[in-house]
Amino acid sequence: MIDQLLRFTPILKQKIWGGKKLNQLLHKDATGDNIGESWEISDVDGDESIISNGSLKGKTLREVLKEYKHNLVGSYVYKTFRDEFPLLIKFIDAKEVLSIQVHPDDDLAEIQDSFGKTEMWYVVQADKDANIIIGFKNDATKQEYLHHLENKTLLDILNVDQVAKGDVYFVPPGRVHAIGAGLLIAEIQQTSDITYRIYDWDRKDIDGNYRELHTEKALKTIDFTAKENYKTSYLKESNTSNKVVSCPYFTTNILPVKGEITVDLSSKDSFVIYMCVEGEVIFNYKNQQEVIKMGETILIPACIDTVTISSKEQSKLLETYIQ
């Protein structure tokens, strides 16, 4: 049995579009002007998270998973994914707009020996007039799309939403998207680092080169149908797990906390991850106490049935597991 709550050392990623909010707002140990991502929990090859607390401190997530198996992730999850942790948990700081891109599903990604990439975003902070590019305004054809891609007028046919703190977007494979400038995002996704870049605003990297585009690969996965509304609505009842997203790859709830609550996890055959997106909360389990501030993340192993969570002021957690 793995008898402790797990914290990890963030893995910081420099990006051409990154900024300083991960340091300034989330107090990450980030130096430099272009830190775009903090990988909170990762099992991506070459970027395995390292435990930062307790008796397992210094071990990687992969090592602990191989040792504790279903006790860490749950019987169903271990049977399905074996020694691969199925989720990648991030905070993203977009000082500039990201490339317009799309992700493949499991079948297409398997060609590249990877999982597909289904993801969701929670807006932690948004500058004035910040927006997200998500999906098409109206149903489009491949020919129409290629015409606008060639003429650099994709925004004429893509949907753009102005966004605010607390907004949620679900991004399945095939949905064209781009996180806009001025957004600080919590992202939950399948363990995959595959992105098909469609258009990158003609910008160059620090060496003066254009980044690679993946026009043909993107064409194989794009869903050209439009949706009435791309934003996800959800309830915000205090001290209750309010369901936000539920898909085969993960379930995410929003848990506003004020005062003290005891959370019964015994019915979940899964690990549970909590990301603090507002305020500060205290997790208590047996003799262990962990203070989790905005921008920090904790993993509850599947074999732990109950934790106590408390907060003096109104705080918010994203609660994620696999059903």
Automatic annotation (TrEMBL):
Pfam families: MPI_cupin_dom (PF21621), PMI_typeI_cat (PF20511)
UniProt GO BP: carbohydrate metabolic process
Keyword vocabulary terms for this entry: Isomerase, Metal-binding, Zinc
Entry annotation: catalytic residues: R197
Cofactors required: Zn(2+)
Top-level division of the source organism's lineage: Bacteria
Binding site for Zn(2+): H103, E119, H177
UniProt-recorded Gene Ontology molecular function terms: mannose-6-phosphate isomerase activity; zinc ion binding
Details of cofactor binding: Binds 1 zinc ion per subunit.
Residue span(s) of domain Mannose-6-phosphate isomerase cupin: 243-312
PANTHER family, A to Z: FRUCTOKINASE, TRANSCRIPTIONAL REPRESSOR MPRA
The protein's name: Phosphohexomutase
Originating organism: Tenacibaculum lutimaris
